[in-house]
Amino acid sequence: MAGTLVIFYSRKGENYMPGGVQVLEKGNTAYAAEAIRDALNADLFEVDTVKPYPESYQACCKEAAAEARIHARPELKAYLPDLRPYDTIFVCYPNWCGTAPMCIFTFLEHYNLEGKRIIPLCTNEGSGLANSETDLKESCPGAQILPGLSIRGHQVKDSAQQIADWAKAQF
To answer: What is the rounded distance in angstroms from the CA atom of residue 110 to the CA atom of residue 89?
Structure first.
């Protein structure tokens, strides 16, 4: 759909899945973001940090928790030059410490999002959207934050149709 952007942060490598930590070639959230892009013919942008997170799942969790405690805004590798062409922005992320990864907020707070529709999708293994919708409202003043979708990370590959149907229903 014209005027629709999907931004996402997704971590490949060691991730928590039922039964323990597994190594993923591609992060779960990337699959969800691509399903939205494909369903809506939307533009896609991957948020990426300058300083990579640790390879170890446990070390990454510790770093994510430290960032969340201080509301860090990690430096990003790139931004889009302009979000004015987009009325609707799907924001896809894993649940880290009860909210979106801090790099998502770094990206969003870089722009004036007044009047934009922000639609969250959160991958997780049972913690749902947690505080992320409230935190998005605080980071996106003047934007309309719509109710989000929570998808279990280990089920995301099999949820493309559910994600596509949900994305289409937002219009």
So the answer is: 14
CA dihedral for 64, 68, 72, 78, sign (positive or negative):
positive
pLDDT band at 1 (very low <50, low <70, confident <90, very high): very low
Burial code (b: 16+ CB inside 10 Å, e: under 16) for 117-139 equals bbbbbbbbbebbbbebbebbeeb
Strand intervals (E) in the chain: 4-8, 13-17, 20-24, 43-46, 88-94, 117-124, 144-145, 149-152
- pTM greater than 0.90 (yes/no): yes
pLDDT tens column, 20-60: 899 999 999 999 999 999 999 999 999 999 999 998 999 99
Contact 104, 93 (CB under 8 A): yes
